[in-house]
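Try it yourself: sequence plus NAP, in.
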Amino acid sequence: MPKAIVIGASSGIGKALAHLLASDGYQVGITGRRLDLLEAIRKTSPDRFIVRSFDCTLDNNLSELEALVEELGGLDLLMVSAGTGDLNETLDASIENKTNLLNVAAFTQIVGWAYNHFQSQKKGHLIAISSIAGFRGNKMAPAYGASKAYQINYLEGLRQKAHSEGGHVLITDIRPGFVDTDMAKGPGQFWVASPEKAARQIYRHIRNKRKVAYVTNRWRLFALLMKWMPRGLYKRF
Ligand SMILES: NC(=O)c1ccc[n+]([C@@H]2O[C@H](COP(=O)([O-])OP(=O)(O)OC[C@H]3O[C@@H](n4cnc5c(N)ncnc54)[C@H](OP(=O)(O)O)[C@@H]3O)[C@@H](O)[C@H]2O)c1
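Structure, out:
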């Protein structure tokens, strides 16, 4: 039975993806801080899910991951869906720090650990959920946008590293637009997808071994617009 871990599976996109993996034959390690939510998922299919509750930003994050891999009896696929971000128009440093701690520092530790694990066994698929928000700065949530730009760039670095080290490790960067979860904050949302629809598309991209994918698909158009919009025009929004 193939083995997967979803980091940040207690709600939202990670939860929906964990269910899809389980129904497609994976044994899935699910993580998050909210143990009650993880246990509720496990109860839907006790032989498919293994629960490990920990905070990714604490020092024990990698030892918790290693213990989970041990319990699963191996690892073929790891998806990082844990993320945070808040609107922060006053630039409150504690909000920015919380975002950077998870989306940058913990993200780096976890994807680095996964890369080395997969490289040492000469196979494995690392997937991370970045965001369309990583393309341009955002006045309402500056650290969130910047942290997602970091993730996009870091994943590209890992993909280049994998290529130069034999191509054993697959790296997939999923860039969603709006998905209807607690994370989707702020006014003027559009093209909002349900977590289930987003997860179905993400799983298709995973199976197709895509390097980069937009979810839902039409966000690719928005990504192009963001990429090429002149600075002078962008600053007016
Ligand atoms: N929703 C959107 O519109 C959207 C758009 C683009 C990108 N994304 C990205 O998609 C990813 C998933 O977010 P979502 O939309 O599914 O939101 P969500 O429902 O809030 O899911 C976030 C997950 O991260 C976990 N998490 C948060 N802080 C954590 C910590 N310190 N340690 C361990 N786990 C932690 C949460 O679990 P616990 O609270 O139980 O710890 C939860 O399972 C995020 O990276 C987000 O940036 C979302």
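One thing you can check immediately is this: The mean pLDDT is 97.
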